[in-house]
Specification:
Number of helices: 16
Distance between the termini: 78 Å
Helix content: 10-25%
Shape: elongated
Strand content: 15-25%
Oligomer: single chain
Structural class: alpha+beta
Number of strands: 18
């Protein structure tokens, strides 16, 4: 059963309550009259109304008392605990009470540290790798009120979306499942964890019904602790301030019962298209690059290539210039690090050790970049050496015949069909006309090649392939000796 806090029909406080000022000042401003007759009376508004925002988002948890004056407030949260965020709309501003259109809000948890913002994509990918199946931000739908059509993108772990009616009471309960110390080097100690920002961007629908017109954005600074860790930290900060002298205590802000999200600029990628996945925050590279076309681009290491030549990693030359190094990074799917490595030449990049690359790019991409710089190819699962049986010639004796030349055959799938296709390519035979592939066994018997036999062949085995042409039906038999 949900117990709602007793509040009036509209939560929005008056200008004097939200923006306190002396009664005389407020009275003098309200009595301002136009100096010219041509001025319209409805164009005059008090300073409090001018600065009163149309929206306000309130996180219902107290702020830290250990924050100095003129600094941004900081709020402590427990991991996985549901926290209420009230979505407030000033009924005196805007036309929402008349049109009754639904608004769309996008809530996300982002990094406050600019250093981590440049590597946000890699940090989130590392978190996804360590916590498979978990999300960073989630909505507690049973507790939420007035939230319509909540949408949780499966790949955007730190973002949630929902619709709401600004004329009705709306509260969304959110859970943050990552703690601040998960993005530090040592990953221990709650107080030294990195701070996060909870940002909410609100959009209205255009004539086509798409929520793309930005209305308002606000955010607040939070730190996330393990369960009950936020309560202990709040108590520690309060006791620390109470022990200080009154003069020192005046330097700190009081602890407010709720956290009001401060207005800010819209999320950069979300301002143009809130439904598209945001990219890693950063600046474009100062150089112009030649990117691969979409049909040849590859977004994941498992993406297959069209030709064997594309599977071969092109090594980075130590003489590569800055521009050539950036192009190499793009070609090898390291585009997100071009901003960070904008001034690196080929020699600079090759001097970095494996541990340096892991520290810069994270574990997954750091290892991949280290292997790419070393041009390390993937070892095939099975390697065979095959030579074609020489044609019988009565003039040549076995002593005069040249030694057999072998060619390598690399197998990845370890199937009889793959071996047949490789032999057809090696022996210059049409693959659809190879009727049978067999292996000579004990006492000269012929054993039909199967998938199980291919999987049990010793690595680097040597064979001589004898090709026999048959007529009914027309085709070829290959015998491996």
């Amino acid at each position: 059963m949900l117990f709602w806090h007793s509040q009036p029909e509209h939560y929005w406080p008056g200008p004097g309550e939200m923006y306190p000022c002396s009664g005389g000042n407020l009275l003098r401003e309200s009595l301002a009259l136009p100096f010219l007759k041509q001025e319209e009376q409805n164009n005059i508004s008090t300073s409090a109304e001018l600065h009163c925002p149309a929206f306000q988002y309130v996180l219902c948890t107290p702020t830290s008392p250990a924050i100095k004056q003129h600094e941004e407030t900081l709020t402590y949260l427990n991991q996985g605990q549901s926290y209420e965020i009230r979505m407030l709309c000033n009924p005196k501003l805007g036309d929402f009470s008349e049109c009754r259109k639904l608004l769309k809000s996008v809530a996300r948890v982002v990094f406050h540290d600019r250093r981590l913002q440049y590597t946000e994509h890699q940090q989130l990918e590392g978190w996804r790798w360590n916590r498979p199946g978990d999300r960073i931000l989630d909505i507690d739908i049973p507790l939420s009120v007035g939230v319509l059509e909540p949408h949780i993108h499966p790949t955007l772990l730190n973002t949630v979306e929902f619709l709401w009616d600004p004329t009705k009471r709306t509260s969304v309960f959110m859970q943050v499942h990552c703690i601040s110390t998960e993005f530090t080097l040592r990953k221990n100690g709650g107080e030294k964890g990195v701070p996060f920002r909870i940002q909410i961007d609100t959009y209205k629908a255009n004539e086509k019904g798409e929520h793309v017109d930005h209305l308002h954005s606000a955010s607040c600074l939070v730190k996330v602790f393990k369960p009950k860790g936020a309560d202990r930290k709040q108590k520690t900060d309060r006791e620390k301030i109470e022990k200080q002298a009154p003069q020192e205590r005046e330097k700190y802000q009081p602890s407010y019962e709720s956290t009001v999200l401060a207005e800010c600029g819209p999320w950069p990628e979300a301002s143009s298209s809130p439904s598209s996945p945001p990219a890693t925050p950063g600046l474009p590279s100062p150089h112009a690059f030649k990117l691969l076309p979409p049909e040849r681009g590859c977004s994941s290491p498992s993406c297959p290539s069209d030709s064997p030549a594309e599977n071969t990693a092109e090594a980075l030359s130590p003489c590569a210039s800055i521009l050539e190094t950036q192009q190499w990074l793009h070609k090898n799917r390291f585009s997100s690090y071009c901003r960070m490595l904008a001034n690196f030449t080929g020699a600079d990049l090759l001097k970095l050790s494996r541990s340096d690359l892991i520290q810069i790019c994270g574990a997954a991409d750091g290892i991949r970049l280290s292997n790419a710089l070393k041009a390390r190819c993937v070892r095939p699962r099975l390697t065979l050496y095959v030579s074609r049986e020489p044609q019988a010639n009565g003039r040549d004796t076995p002593e005069d015949s040249p030694p057999a030349t072998y060619q390598e055959v690399y197998l990845e799938e370890l199937t009889a069909a793959e071996l047949t296709n490789k032999l057809a390519e090696l022996l210059s035979l049409p693959a659809n006309q190879i009727l049978q592939v067999s292996k000579r066994g004990p006492t000269g018997i012929h054993i039909l090649i199967s998938d199980l036999m291919v999987r049990n062949l010793p690595d680097e085995s040597c064979f001589v392939a004898a090709v026999t042409k048959v007529q009914a039906p027309e085709g070829y038999h290959i015998i491996l000796r």
